[in-house]
Amino acid sequence: KAGVTQTPRYLIKTRGQQVTLSCSPISGHRSVSWYQQTPGQGLQFLFEYFSETQRNKGNFPGRFSGRQFSNSRSEMNVSTLELGDSALYLCASNRGGANEQFFGPGTRLTVL
Amino acid sequence: AQSVTQLGSHVSVSEGALVLLRCNYSSSVPPYLFWYVQYPNQGLQLLLKYTSAATLVKGINGFEAEFKKSETSFHLTKPSAHMSDAAEYFCAVTHDRDDKIIFGKGTRLHILP
Fold this sequence. Notes:
The complex is a heterodimer.
Chain A lengths: L4 E3 L2 E4 L5 E6 L6 E8 L3 E9 L2 E5 L6 E5 L5 E5 L8 E8 L7 E2 L3 E5 L1
Parallel strand pairs in A: 2-11
Antiparallel strand pairs in A: 1-3, 3-8, 4-5, 4-9, 5-6, 7-8, 9-10, 9-11
Chain B lengths: L2 E5 L2 E5 L4 E8 L5 E7 L5 E7 L5 E3 L5 E5 L4 E6 L8 E8 L7 E2 L3 E6 L1
Parallel strand pairs in B: 2-11
Antiparallel strand pairs in B: 1-3, 3-8, 4-5, 4-9, 6-7, 7-8, 9-10, 9-11
């Protein structure tokens, strides 16, 4: 069974731009969560989608948004990028209610 | 609110020595607890999880963790460290099967030859 895939793996943007990251969960998994990982803050929860609905949300500004499609694939969007948004963005999926998260390799975003 | 504290952002042990990574949690209800490992340039991989079935949980790669409610701890151990264990380890908690999972800041494990 294929694992969680994330595209692109690396991204370089400049301040003020926006970016969209994509995540394809493991087949059959209905829950997709997004995390931001930085050296200073560690892993911070952004949001979780389950069956196309946002089920949980972390403490990030409204510039961070996401959505989930009917095939469970998810996208995350960051608008008006700031230098501090440079991070590894991880996507994780699970069957829903199963807790164990399966992580993708991440997208490394660099904001210049 | 639930939270996780990992003591020590860096831990160094000699190859063959005991590995002990500390995790303390805060949760108002019985928690679900996890340990994940992250190798360089990779996502996180589940090592083991506690879901109230047994207090001593065995995971992959020879790791195990013991849930101690009285100490609100879930420390990760491995009897004999191997060079391949060098990675970053994350403890995580949630109190509900459908709730978000909160991660600790991670502990980077260094193995000395």
